[in-house]
Specification:
The protein has 122 residues and is α+β, with helices and mostly antiparallel strands. The protein contains two helices and five strands; from the N terminus they run E-E-E-E-E-H-H.
């Protein structure tokens, strides 16, 4: 009987899963797989003052992000794009009309202002 914990679904589609692993000497890791194909292995390595996180890609479609924004992008992705809402057509047309009106008024105001300035200077 295998006492391995059940895999944890990860990713937006849930097709990826993380399976906790423990080897004979007690080291722990996570095996990330899609269907039955392994994709990456996440483990730790002993360091001097703290453990080093080690990610081992197992295929060409594993993206490694080393920038500080990777966590922020992941966190914001859920809060910004959690619900897919469609904008009604009338709202798009009204918004475009307002943008065109503001640009038109800005052009008309610029022409009027510079017309007054040129009359005062001349």
């Amino acid at each position: 009987m295998d006492d391995a914990p059940p895999p944890i679904a990860i990713g937006s589609s849930g097709r990826l899963s993380a399976q906790p692993l423990t080897n004979a000497v007690g080291d722990h890791a996570l095996l990330i797989r899609q269907a039955e194909a392994p994709r990456a292995l996440l483990t730790g390595e002993r360091g001097t003052d703290r453990e080093r996180v080690v990610l081992v890609p197992m295929d060409d479609d594993v993206e490694l992000r080393v920038d500080g924004d990777a966590l922020a992008v992941w966190l914001a992705h859920g809060s910004v794009s959690a619900a897919t809402a469609s904008v009604p057509g009338w709202a798009s047309v009204l918004g475009m009309a307002l943008v065109v009106a503001v640009i038109g008024l800005a052009i008309l105001g610029g022409i009027t202002f510079f017309g007054w300035v040129l009359r005062l200077v001349a």
